[in-house]
Amino acid sequence: MRREACICLFLIAAVLFVYWQVGDHEFINYDDNLYITDNAQVQKGLTSTGIIWAFTTSHTGNWHPLTWISHMLDCELYGLNPKGHHLTNVLLHTANAILLFVVLRWMTGAVWRSGLVAALFALHPLHVESVAWAAERKDVLSTFFWMLTMVAYVSYVNRPSGKRYVLILVTFFLGLMAKPMLVTLPFVLLLLDYWPLNRFQPRATTASAVNQPFGFRSFGDDMSPILRAVIEKVPLLLMSLLSCLVTVMAQQKAGAVSTLEVVPFKLRIANGLVSYVAYMGKMIWPLDLAVFYPYPGSALHIWEPAAAGLFLLIVSTVALWGAHRCRYVLVGWLWYLGTLVPVIGLVQVGEQAMADRYTYVPLIGLFIVVVWGFADLVKRWRALRLIASVTAVVMVLALMVGSWFQVGYWKNSIQLFKHALDVTSNNYVAHYTLGNALAAQGNLTGAISQYHKALEITPDFAEAHNNLGNALAMQGNLTGAISQYHKALQFNPDHAEAHRNLAVALDRQGKHQEALQHYVEALRISPHDAQSHNNLGVALAEQGRFKEAVAHFTEALRIDPNFKEAQRNLKLSQGLMEKSSTGAEGAQRF
Q: Which has the closest alpha carbon to 402: 124, 115, 133?
């Protein structure tokens, strides 16, 4: 137990050393706003209304109520202080690493190998994105329940009972409510049945704890072991299927799923094959990591997916051929291939070609292959054991240093997206988001430059046109701003914010009736936008239509009770409406 305790203490110390700096980091203007800083429901903390909202909303294109509740709890505890939100992610990541070590140690009996896999998981730079990004709480939280499900499963295998099986179902369901990435976990449990649990064959009385700690223990001995194992997973598979259906519905409702016209299926398959190999390359040499990797499109040459596919086929063949001698190779390889399926891009969600955060769970499979394979390679030669130990230590230290620097890029939005532009090309999202960060700091000239660069790469980028219009408007260039808003609506006629911004600009030009039409259109598209209700109320009040204005100010406050401007406008319009009813002079002025 002393070795296990030492490994756990090392994992805690190493993770805190690498990630403690996030306590001084800011929120990022990329998804952190959707999840936290601009989310009124989350900012209210834990409330009954908020919890109901968490279970019923498809905001951000996902159904993950447990993730929303965890963000609400952070707001309840820390408000909008980013330090608390970031450190919660770090604590969950630390717990995940320890649970991974515990469950591998329990299944295999191998202390140091399990500890090294857990260390690679805890300290690899590819996992920084999942931990240092507050909005990626869903990654670390869902994986926490992934690990708990594995622990519950091993407990059930060791001593089968109805209560232990129910515990598997509960932890699995909680994980699905944090992120649907767990849909592949039932298949991973089947892989673990093959190795290291050895549930497809009778318990061997002479096998060592390292090679065969468990034999098959379950009900129905007259049934095939493989069939028994599959039947055990049926409730989990049904839950996975339901989660997939709910997720697809939520993403379609939010418009997050790209159509085949936008991203053809052939291109998705090609990008998926290349991404499988690219992730492996980044695992071995984790440099040039970016928060966003643009989709390659026509830049992807035909030989790249062909070579990637051939490579994957060769590795899969070798893994199958050697399975009778090194079962961990097949298990680890299939773990990697299988757990990436939901995020490899066959159902394209978002505009990224790949993402570091997608490797958070899948790389565990490759870590198992590397560590167990390396250990088996040197165990026959005593002289190599010292070299192997030194190599493992150097590798872990190198990963710690790499992750420490990678965490530093997440300090704020400007630093993060400047780094993304340094290590990628044609990254229109990085240009656009850097522009937003510069605009938030008042650097309108820099922001406009970044928006133009984004539009040079992607001319039909409606969001960039809209925000370029905002920057021009703040510089006093209303004509240029209106032109950009019209371009945004040309590429996306249902862009509610562009309608609202165009209405504001037209109002400033004195074109009140035309502005009114765009306010109405903005609310048709987004009826729960408090700002649009407030702006429409102002436009109506300026025309002396106080009763209608009061209704919109009231609705704005219903949506956002802390909307100070709407409170002031409501009070003012009510006063003017009273004066209008008595015929007081000046009643028509707002």
A: 124
